[in-house]
Every structure is written in C-alpha cells, then in structure tokens.
Amino acid sequence: MKINVRLLSLNLNERDLSIALVGLKQYANMSDIVKKHYNITIHQWNKNYDEMGKPNTIEGLPLDKLIEELEPLNTEIIGFSTYIWNFEFMMKIAQTVKSINPKIKTLFGGSQAGGMGKKLFTIGDYVDFLISGEAELSFRKFLIGHLENDYSTIENLYFLKNDKIVKNIPEDARMAKKQSYLERIDELPYPFRDKEYRQFLDDLDYKVTAQFETERGCPLSCTFCSWGTRLPIRRRRQRDVEEGLTYLLNHPNVRAVYIVDANPFIKDEKGLWLTEFLLHKNKSGKPVFFELNPEYVRNPRVIENLGKLSGDELAFGLQSTSDKTLKIIKRRFNREIYER
C-alpha cells in the first residue's frame, strides 16, 4: 500500500490550483521510487469571508470538515504551503491533525515558514520538518529519505532529532540559497500541462486568476525577501511560455493571469518578446498582472509596449524612501526613475 502524502494550500481569493504544489508533485513523481511508494494529493481551499468568525470555523471554513477531508488516521505526511495570509490557518491544521494522529509527519515550506528557520519549531510540538528555499529538489529527496528515516543529506531541511533541531543549511545566506538552487528551470515540468491542474480549471463553476512563472530569481538580496539570491536568474523557454499563456488566456474559467516573477522585464530581449506576445496574441483581452521594479525596465520599446497593454496591472514595489531604512534592508532605490 502506498504512503499517503497531502499538500495543503489556502488562498486569499479564487485562484487556479497552486502551481507551487503542482510543481512539487510533478517533480517528485519524476522519481520512480516516489511514484512506487507514494500517493500525493493536493488539497486547496479559498477563504470564505461570508463565514468569518462563526463558531467552529477557521478562515470561514468548517474545521471539522477540513480535518475529515485530510483523513489523519490514513495519512503519513502533510505538507503546508505557508504565506503571511494563511500561516495561522496552517498551524491550526497541523496542531489538530497531530492531536488525532501523533505519528503524522508535518512538513512546512513557503515564504512565511521558510523565513522563520529554527523559530518555527518553538511554536508547538506539531512542527516536524521545514524546507527553506526552493523546494523541488529537497521535497523529492525528503520523500526518498523518509523511506529509510534518514534526512541527513537533504538540502535546506530543518528537522528534529533527539529533541534537537538539525539544520542542513550553511550559515552563509548566499550558500544556503545556492544549496537548493536549481541551475535550470527550463526542464522543470509545467503546471499548465499537468492533467490534475487542467481538470481543476475545467471543473470550476467560477472564474479565477491563474498564476504563471516565466523565470525564477532576483539580482537583489533584500533582507525581508525570499526571492533574491544574487545567483543567475533562470528562465523558461520562450516557446513554452507562449504555449502556457495561450492556454490560460484562452481558458473560459480564467479571468486574468498573474505573472509571479520578481522582475519579468529585467532582460531586454525577454521583455520585448513577452510584451509583443501579449500585445498581439492575447486575443481574449484578459488582463495580465505583473510585479516589477521600474529600475530594471530600461528598454524604450518595452516601456512603450507596457503602456499599450490595456487592462493590465503593474505593481511597483516601494518599500521605503528613507535612506537609513533602505540601507538596513539592503534595498536599492532610485527616486528619479520611480518619479519619472
């Protein structure tokens, strides 16, 4: 009988199936050992704002039904994808399933838990493992190591052993990120090609914003952010990006696409073909959302194209205008470019 693994996601609003968790599952199942021994299931919910604060609910969702869905007595590992907006929810789920089945292994990841490091283990005795940083490689190795109860060689992993926290991470921050750093992402499976992901979209009776990754990494190394590595930015192939965007923009249950890259236009050549594609190939006219740093949008044609993308949203990160604060958080800021 295969080992049941459940990966959990909670959204602020209606989204496609978590591309982070779909990607973890795809990459893990590329291993014959994982496919043979594990059954990985993704569970995803949206916050229900109409039911917020009602008895026996968490984020507006009935706690008992959530736990029943996870089948704690028939599950060996639960993975929690954490962000600032779902952290308390995930901790409550972990605490509850552990109280039902203390043998369950809880594995945390994502930007919120990943940035806490050892501090996460002080919250409660329901925290067993933490992956910090890019998780595809570490998660697959974790599942393989779990079969032998050996986690000693898994990159970027924190875990408890004999009541002590073991840290498989170099002290140097750059080396820590490099340890789980995938040198190439163009060969990673694409979530939009995944059967489960497509079925999720097809079965929806409402429209969602879909997430899409065209590249990974950031040249900055801000102290508050998990994106920056000062390591080379890795990009998907143009033909794969165009195929994926075409699929999502043409899907009837997708209302918009959110590009999750840190700075999608940092390379002029890529910025040109991406904006040209959206200008001329987005026949649906659906909006595309970006986050970007204006300091890295230098090409006049890219700027001109961005101005023509009607209905699209550009989010500019502005952490502070204080020189003192910017120095502390190691964030560069060119006021002239922002104002222009």
UniProtKB/TrEMBL annotation:
Residues 204-340 form the Radical SAM core domain. Residues 14-153 form the B12-binding domain. Keywords: Iron, Iron-sulfur, Metal-binding, S-adenosyl-L-methionine. GO terms for molecular function: catalytic activity; cobalamin binding; iron-sulfur cluster binding; metal ion binding. Gene3D superfamilies: Cobalamin-binding domain (3.40.50.280), tm_1862 like domain (3.80.30.20). InterPro entries: BchE-like, Cobalamin-bd, rSAM, rSAM_horseshoe, rSAM_sf. One of its GO terms (cellular component) is cytosol. Its cofactor is [4Fe-4S] cluster. The keyword Acetylation does not apply. SUPFAM superfamilies: Radical SAM enzymes. Transmembrane segments: none annotated. It holds the Pfam family Radical_SAM. This is Uncharacterized protein.
